[in-house]
Amino acid sequence: MTLEKWLDEADRVLIAAGAGLSAAAGYDYSDTERFAELFPVLHDKGLWARYQLIGLPLPPRLMWGYWSVHVDDIRFGDEPNPVYQRLRELVGARDHFVFTSNVDGLFERNGFDQERIWTPQGDYGRYQCETPCTRETWPSRPIIEAALATYDRSTGEATAVPSCPSCGGEVFLNVHKGPEYVPDHYVPAGRRLREWLDDGVLVIEIGAGYSTPGVIRSPVESVVRGLAGARLVRINRDHAEVPADLNGRALGVRANVAEVLA
């Protein structure tokens, strides 16, 4: 069993990606050097990595100072990424779909069709009411750019704190962090993926560990179990083990993602 052989034989390919793929591409939430460079005030307060800010309450101006810089850095960059581009090259002209917990837009920005990308955890590219007072969500680039325009690196604060266009209340990015999350924008892509799946699919799971196994790992195992001709390749540096009941239809590749794609 080899990835190359299964890829050659595949009728269609489902890319299932976790945080490990973006980390391999250089967007690592545990990168202490990049954090200190971008967020000197927060670093001086004793923080050292972006993952610590997930769900951390901050005063509004400091919060939007952080999130505007973070989202601008990780979501709205326009330069191509070689790891994601190599993955797109490997998929080639094969019929394919993407299922990812990542909210950074890197698939779309590197040549994957937006209509074939399901991001059930949301997207930094949108924001929502925190109440929420409405099921509507909005593009986040305008509020990120407005906050950045008022960002003071010496204080870490942005004075342009956004508010809900509907009720005037607090807003946040449209990502899954609690029961207030509004997933409606992503539901059609999930429906398209379910309709697209069939027995000939090769699932290539990349960088999905055990921090949130119910988002990527467990669902793709269920997909392969439910489709008699489906196969699973799990590429993971630390957790490449595959279920015993998928013997002969699942391959674990314990290696760095970037090295495998190269």
From TrEMBL:
Zn(2+) binds at C129, C133, C164, C167. InterPro entries: DHS-like_NAD/FAD-binding_dom, NAD-dep_sirtuin_deacylases, Sirtuin_cat_small_dom_sf, Ssirtuin_cat_dom. Residues 1-262 form the Deacetylase sirtuin-type domain. PROSITE patterns: SIRTUIN. Keywords: Metal-binding, NAD, Transferase, Zinc. It comes from the Bacteria. The keyword Nucleus does not apply. This is Deacetylase sirtuin-type domain-containing protein.
